[in-house]
Each structure stands twice: as C-alpha cells, then as structure tokens.
Amino acid sequence: MFYEIEYDASLIPGVGKFVRKPKPQKIEEPEKDSIREHFGRMRDIARAHRSTYDFSRFFERRIQNDNAIIFYKQALFMKDFMDDYEGNTHFSQYFPYYQMMGYEQLRTYFTWRTRVRQGNIADISLSYAFLYLYELLANIGVADPQDGLDKLMLFWKRFREYNKSIDKYVLRWLKDYHIYYELPRTFKEFVDENNLAEHYPKLSGSDDSFELFCSISKYNIGKSTFFTDENKGMISDCFAFVMDRIRQDFEAAGMDFDDALFRPTRKLVAWKPFKDALFYTPVKPPDKRIILCENEIYICKNGEWKFSTIITTEKGRQFIAYVMKQMEATLRKIMKYRFKLTANTDMIHDDTIRILTKAGLFIEKIVPAGVMEYYRELTKIVITVDHSSLARIREEALKTQESLIVEEQLKEKTSELKPIQFTQQDRNIFADTANESVEEPAPVYDVWGKLKDILTENELRALAVVLQGGDMKAFADECGEMLEVLADGINEKAMDCLGDNLMDDDFVLYDDYKEQVKELIK
User: Fold this and answer.
1) Which of 43, 47, 331, 451 matches a 20 to 30 Å C-alpha distance to 188?
2) DSSP letter assigned to residue 29
3) What is the pLDDT, as a whole number, of residue 136?
C-alpha cells in the first residue's frame, strides 16, 4: 500500500506544497523472469571481483587481465546455459565479454551459441563470434583440449564463409593452442593434415621432426642411396621412434635431452598465449620447453612463458649426425641392403661421450636396440583366429592324432637321445671362425639374451647342429619333431626378438648372425 504525493505549485517561486491523495493504490509485483535472475547471478561474479571494469580502457593490459578473469569465471557459470530467444540484437565491442552486454544481447548470444553447439553455425555480429572463440580457447564447454581444437576448427571453417576477418586471429591462435595445451599430435602433423602449410611457411617441424633434425645434422641422410622414395617414410618413422627411446633413457638418467642439443639465445622475451583474446585459466601450466621449429623456442617456467630464437650447439649437431647415421647403418643391416654403412662414435664430441658415459648411457647400444625394436614392431604379423572354426579344427586334430606315433613310443625314443658332445675339433672350428677377420663385428645386445631365454633346449641344440654344418633333419628325427616345425619355431622367436629370421628356407644359418649364435649356445 502507498500514497501518491503531489508537488503542487505555489505563489512563491521555488516553494511548493505536498498534497496527499486520499485513495490508496497497490503496487503489483512484477512477473518473475528466471533468465534475467540467472543473468543477475552471473553479473554478481563481476561485482565480487572488485575490479574497475572500464569498457573505454580495454586496451590497457591491467584492464584486459581483469576482464579475462571475470570472463573466465562467468563463462564457467554459463557453460551449460541454453536459450531459445526470438530476437537478434546487434553487438559490437573490442575484447567482448558478458559484463558489457545488455539483456537482449545476452539472450541473442546464448541462443546463437546453443544452435552452434547443435551444429547450426549461422552468421551473427562479429563480437558474438569472438566471444565463442574465447570460450573455446579457455576450454569452456569442451571435454578436453583435443575436443576444443576440433570445435575450434569446425567453427572457423564454417564461420569464415560469412566473415573472413577472423582468419588472422584464428591462424595465430591455432599455433598458440598447440604450444599451450598437451595434444596427441604435433603442430606440424596438424598443419599437414589440414592443408595449412601456406599459412605457416617458416614451420619446419616439431621437436622430434625428421625434417628439423635433418636441417641441423652434420650427416646428410637425404643424399644416401638408401634414402629412396620407398624407404624415406620408414626412415622418418624409425628416427622418431629412436629419438623417443633416447629421450626416455636421458630422462631415466636425470638428463635433459633438449639442454644437450638446443640452447636459447641470451635474450628471452615474455610471451603471452592467445594474444588479442581475453584468455585466462586458473590452472598453472607445467614447466616445459616447446621447440616449435628451428627458429622458435617457447619456455614455460613457474607459470611464466618466455620466447626466444634458438641456436644448435656444435656438439648437438655432431650427436644427431651419429644417431642418424647409426640408425641408417642398423636399418641397412637388418634389411640386408647390398651396401653396408658404418657409424663411429668418433663423430660425437669427446665431452658428450664423457657426460653420457658418466650417466651410464651408451649411445652405440641405445640406437641399434631402438632400431631393432622399431623394425620388429613394423614387421610383426598379427594372426586373427576365427573362433567359429575351432570345432572343425578340433575334429580334424582328433583324426590326425590317430595316425601319429603313440605317446609311449615317442617317450621311449626321446629317452634314448643323448646330448650332443662337442669334440675338440668342433671347438677348434669355433675358435678358427672367431679369429676370422670380420669387417664390422656385431655386439651381442640384450635382445639376444632374451632370445636365449625363450628358445627350448632342443632349439638351442638344433642351432649348434646347424652351426657345425650337421644334419638338422637327422637331429629333428631323433627328437621326434618335424624338421619344418623345429625350424619355424626358431625363426619365429628370432623374429619376435630381432626382427629377422636366423635361417633361410634350406635351414642354413645366415652369415650375419653366426657370431651371435656362437655366443648364444655357449
């Protein structure tokens, strides 16, 4: 209830009187607007921040930082909000965010965003589009950084059909996105997959890019006869695999691989991710170093980002040259390439060798082992069993069993076997062979120890027979085994460990592995 009071005129200028009207009137309570109330709670976040949000001073860094914090907190509050508003109110503002928007503008934006998330990307005022981009950069409304990148790319490709002015910002932010967030693919791979190379002409690759290391290596693998169109894909993948193993070994030894290879120039410049965007996240980024290409390095330490150009140390160039050449030499040997190649550790600087040795890192073993592991994975044969055929296989196996030697007879024959005794003449053969001049004796790696562990006693004895030039068929008969089964068992286990067979189809030991087999059967 209230009284209406009138300010009446008076004869004296500036003086009036109040007249109370006798009829009371009742104020009707306004109809509740849940959306307006929700917007009000969102605006309370800015009031609690106690910042002086001056829209006219958007260019000042302090104002931008405050606005970015407010935007992030409000965006989290509104991340699941959906609307269905029929109006379409224009909005134009530098560094837009919710606090500067009116009721109709907020409803216009969130209705448009609801439809964008449903796949309907329509034209709208450019400031609304940047507001949505800010949300994606901060990973608001996305499952993870990869999901955010996918949504960013989808929106950019669709919206640029209406307004290409977002290109110069999005193209820069895409690179920043790969620097700031952990993603499964490198920026180079992302650029190649999306045909964006023309926008990043100076990009030569990510930190383990084959092209990047080729540009700094003192060994030019591109001029090698082994580097053919057929092999270069495998060589590139093998190098990345080996580099990953080297990094793991360096980390296990408490060493930083990048420090040994790259060093920034003395002048480090402060760097801010997503320039010209309102970007803030309360999560402190981990310390890391991103070598984006040969001339760009980004370093994050204690949450602060720095940028610098990089130079490659001479020792680093020598080290990569050895790794690349040793990798190629091992690949040539595994693939039985007609021309051999030798990589000597003399290519590495003495200081580097000393540091590695002190840390227990023997690069002359790490690289070949990595190459063998890669090749074994590359050539691994995956067998898929059709379970529907198992019943038929069992039935056929029972029929076959009737034609085989009964178990008792097999045991009697096996019990009569005597272990092979090596004569002094056999030992002399081994000694003479060991003293032969070999161009490049292959060291025994851990993979050979693994092979010895999984070979059966009969398989080891069979290798001894083959090495002596004996009759493997007779030996297989004495053991009660089929010759082909025995040989295939040896070769399959060798393939698992070494990535190669030990014997050819005539059950003759390959010359490349005779020395290792001698060590194996001792």
Assistant:
1) 331
2) P
3) 97
Nearest by Cα to 303 from 180, 391, 425, 214 = 180
What is the pLDDT, as a whole number, of residue 264? 62
Count CA within 13 A, CB hemisphere, residue 42.
24
> How far is residue 75's CA from residue 96's CA, in Å, rounded to a whole number?
12
Q: What angle do CA 44, 48, 54 make, to 5 degrees?
A: 85
Question: Rounded to whole angstroms, how far apart are CA atoms 171 and 189?
Answer: 15
Measured distance CA(160)–CA(480) in Å, rounded: 74
How many of the other CB atoms lie within 10 Å of CB of 185?
14
pLDDT digits (tens, 9 = 90+) for 423-441: 555 444 444 434 444 344 4
Cross-strand bridge partners of residue 304:
301
Are the beta carbons of 486 and 479 closer than 8 angstroms?
yes
Please check the confidence at residue 265 and state whether its pLDDT lies above 50. Answer: yes
Distance in angstroms (rounded) separating the CA atoms of residues 168 and 12: 69
How high is the pLDDT of residue 206? 42
Grouping H, G, I as helix, E, B as strand and the rest as coil, residue 197 is helix
Q: Which residue has the tokens 């999306």?
A: 194
Taking each continuous run of H as one helix and of E as one strand, the counts in the chain are 21, 8
Q: Within its chain, how far is the Cα of 71 from the centroid?
A: 31
How many of the other CB atoms lie within 10 Å of CB of 423?
A: 10
Banded model confidence at residue 257, pLDDT cuts 50, 70, 90: confident
Work out the end-to-end distance of the chain between its first and last CA atoms, rounded to an integer number of angstroms: 109
**Cα separations (Å) of 180 from 75, 117, 271, 273, 329?**
20, 24, 11, 7, 37
Residue 475 carries which side chain, given as an amino acid letter? F
Structure tokens at 486: 């025995």
What amino acid occupies position 341?
L
User: Using N-to-C axis directions, what is the helix angle for 363-378 and 232-252, rounded to 10°?
Assistant: 130
State whether residue 88 is helix, strand or coil: coil
Residue 130 pLDDT more than 60?
yes
Alpha-carbon dihedral sign for residues 99, 100, 104, 107? negative
Q: In the prediction, which pLDDT does 427 show?
A: 47
Q: Rounded to 5 degrees, what are φ and ψ at 83?
A: -145, 165
Q: Examine the pLDDT at 341 and tell me if it is beyond 80.
A: yes
Rg (C-alpha) for the chain, rounded Å, is 37
Cβ contact 456:486 at 8 Å:
no
